[in-house]
Amino acid sequence: MRGALLARRDEIAAARISGNDDSVRVFNFSAGPAQLPLPVLEQAASELTSWGGSGMSVLEVSHRGADFVACAADAEATLRRLLSIPKNYRVLFLQGGASAQFAGIPLNLTAPGDTVAYLNTGQWSAKAIKQAGAYELDVVVPADEAASSYTATPEPGSFTVPEGARYLHYTPNETIGGVEFDYVPDSGGVPLVADFSSTILSRPIDVSRYGLIYAGAQKNMGPSGLAVIIVREDLLGRARPVTPTVLDYQKMADADSMLNTPPTFAIYLLGLIGHWIEDDGGLEAMAERNRAKAELLYGFIDSSDFYANPVQKRSRSWMNVPFTLADPALDADFLAGAQAAGLTNLKGHRSVGGMRASIYNAMPIEGVRALIDYMTDFAARA
Ligand SMILES: *Cc1c(COP(=O)(O)O)cnc(C)c1O
Questions:
Q1: 74, 75, 338, 339 — which has fewest CB within 10 A?
Q2: CB of 170 closer than 6 A to ligand 1?
Q3: What is the homologous superfamily of the domain 281-381 according to CATH?
């Protein structure tokens, strides 16, 4: 029975939408914290009061107990399998979200006076750049898409990383602008550092091309607060003496991320989500599904005179799809009607306006179809 349920989860998720009992689920297009896979939520709910038959919740057990240590090790092992993480990389589970790493990266990888390079393709890149500015660094921005109003990624080969830079930082997917690199930037031989918050686990990544990958969990991997860091071992052990212990990658690696109490529930959920992805065919299968969802939605938007997406075609995000209506005066009506149809959190980021549909792994293609049906209807009535 469980197997059949898993195999048909998309249909089940869609069927739930039309139910009218207390367990009704909507298609939630939130950019983050985002919709999670229903089977994961159901499993977590079913074992919330007695985890593994222990008579205790996973929320109530020591992080140093054998059960939780095994749970965290399993979450890490699952991530390692999914992403084919090479042996010479460490996986860390840290707190403070992705934003804490805007500070953690310069503190761990530089000394005062060093040069660092950042590509600027949107608001998250810009925040990382601003934070780096606090650490007595020469912060160089070899490519800046502010001029395109963050609607494009730089052309491959159009920028040069300064010699001697400690690293090149970029944001593979800009969650707010819906702008995504369709290539891995050439870092000119220096370690490549990437904020994968809103695209990790959406498709395979060649981890070996990176010095450091980091991601907040709440877009595609679980609840907020947890950040996953995947760091090549030779980059460890260089933290500045002033680095807070809980941000020191070497110290955290030595302590298996348990120098202090880790976000236990978030790590547990990360593990469940990893297993859900594996059961569904792994990252190749996720990539196929995500590509199909994105193509469907962009194809519809491009074929319409009423809706528009401003992003350069090759840089369009698979995960976050911003769009505008021909008449912004209709935005409020559009959102109210969507909400009534069980399509929630479509309002664009407060800084850009319009709409944004986030279609992470947990969004079934039925959700995208329902959105397109609604958009078709709304445009016909407008
Ligand atoms: C959401 C997001 C962040 C910030 O994550 P927090 O967990 O809130 O710190 C950083 N970078 C990107 C690309 C994001 O999408």
A1: 339
A2: no
A3: Aspartate Aminotransferase, domain 1 (3.90.1150.10)
